[in-house]
Design goal:
With about 500 residues, this protein is α+β, with helices and mostly antiparallel strands. The protein has 3 domains: about 5-10 and about 40-125, 2-Layer Sandwich (Phosphorylase Kinase, domain 1); about 130-330, Transferase(Phosphotransferase) domain 1 (Transferase(Phosphotransferase), domain 1), CATH 1.10.510; about 335-500, Pleckstrin-homology domain (PH domain)/Phosphotyrosine-binding domain (PTB) (PH-domain like, Roll), CATH 2.30.29.30. It is about 30% helix and about 25% strand. It is globular, with a radius of gyration of 27 Å. Bound molecules: adenine (ADE). Adenine binds near residues 60, 123, 126 and 176.
Amino acid sequence: MPSMLTLVFRKLKVGSKPQKEESSMAPQPDASQQRVQPPKKQRSDFEFGKILGEGSYSEVVQATEKTTRKEYAIKVLLKRQMIRENKQKYVMRERDVLTRLNHPFFVKLYFTFQDKDRLYFGLSLAKRGELLPYIHKVGSFDECTTRFYSAEIILALEHMHSLGIIHRDLKPENILLNEDWHIQITDFGSAKILEADSSDGIVRANSFVGTAQYVSPELLTTNRTERVEKSASKCSDLWALGAIIYQLLAGLPPFRAGTEYLIFQKILKLEYVFPDGFPEKARDLVQKLLVIDPKKRLGCDECGGYPKLKAHPFFQGVDWDNIHKQTPPALKPFTMLDGEEIHSDYYVDDFNILTPNSLSDVFEKINTNETENEKTHSKKYVLDHSSEERAHLLSKQEKDVKWHQFVEGNLILKMGLVDKRKGLFARRRQLLLTEGPHLYYVDPENMVLKGEIPWSRTLKVEAKNFKTFFVHTPNRTYYLIDPEGYALEWCRAIDEMMHYTYQA
Ligand code: ADE
């Protein structure tokens, strides 16, 4: 006998038309009008590849249909686990929402099927994956890139809200990028469909939904009746939008703390600051979105709705009707120095690949300051010591150098204070290049090892000027500023180490 879940799942059909809950009362089309449904797909129709994402009762797996070679992201949900966690309602709602959405900025649900243990949702494969790792990779987005992606998110929200759907867990992990670098919003497991009779667009939910950093204050407060009720409306998604715009430009979300509880406290007190260099118009926009009273948030119905949000000066010049046809700005590592954007000469094409930007030759100019002879033949940092010499240097280092405790017995080849930047935030660090090779960085105030820049064959160093240099690694570009002006020396030392390690 089919389980209740199986029956409910069968009742819902994927198609372009939204399914009404009360559809059993609606007149049914006669047989001649009924479309012939293609046969249900099954697991064996697909070759499954890598896991793209994992949850407690589901995972998203890359899959290729054997007959058509079409690629999908298939969300596989474990029925038993889902029932144990009492999540059936959310799964069905996710399917219902995906069926209603019909817009390029959302993943599309192409098909569903099930077997004894699992449900399968065949979704569009967003080839470039999540937005979040790209923020981490480049530190933060420049104004032009932020404007473009914020505009796409707004168009997606406008469509979704016009259908009475609220996402309730909007965050950079749920914003995917397709092959052409346009957004595709996903994960409607927390979504809500507003009932037609809910005039204020507010629904009550019993449990906290969302992710701490992006959750709006109204979901955290106790209402007048002293019963803990959490209200989610379209405005909750607008709060999340404000937090995301802040993060795109600054590199980190506005409300940060060691625990969820402390993050919630900050949200309720609207306790956040803009780092130096945060663009003025964007600051004004974020301030109008991160507003405690949901009805006073720019973009909500009470504040002029989407037309007012789209007319904000930050979006000046955006061609709202054609954005999906435009080529998104290339993601490029960059940092701000003295109010100016300093861009890398590489752009992020894929995770391990930094593609040189052919329009710029700054990198060449700086790196040819030294003659080829100097670069390839004279070594300054990486010397071939005899074992006696090395032992002597190491014992001297142990006695005289306070940073010795952090370098795991390796000989330090170059060290110095740098400002390590992440988005618009900077921290003073002692950078230590050692044998190994390693590039350790230490918090000099608290004398704590904070981390290491990971070495690999693909590490690339790029000098921008006498103070600024970038270290590109597959997952992250490190922006380093040497206040003493020895950026070129750092690049030389790191290049020497690269040459010694991989070409010797
Ligand atoms: N991760 C989660 N869902 C995905 C999708 N549809 N495409 C690519 N990566 C994903």
